[in-house]
Amino acid sequence: MLDKAKSELQTDILEKLGTYVTDGTYASETALLDALHDADDESLLVNILTYKFLELWFQQDATNVDSMAYQKAGNYYRKYVHYLQINLQRLAGSLSTPKTFPRFRMRSSYGY
To answer: Comparing C-alpha atoms, which of 20, 30, 9, 21 is closest to residue 81?
Structure first.
């Protein structure tokens, strides 16, 4: 269960911060994940992983919509998404800034 939570967390991080890999700021997805881990001095990733684990834990026992496990799984999922977004913004601030490519602008020969 923990391996599944870790795998899903890595996938979600790469979906949110994929521009760092596609623009060449980091050579690979592994390099990006390592940089995030190094930048995390407050154990933010561990807290996010905990919410993902608890969501999956209660999700496996959620047999119907009215069950307590279903409600807890939904609650932990909402917390997971919220904390993932907030903490990735905090951690992305300590990463290298994404490379920006200059935009090509056509100039008219008519002087506009």
So the answer is: 9
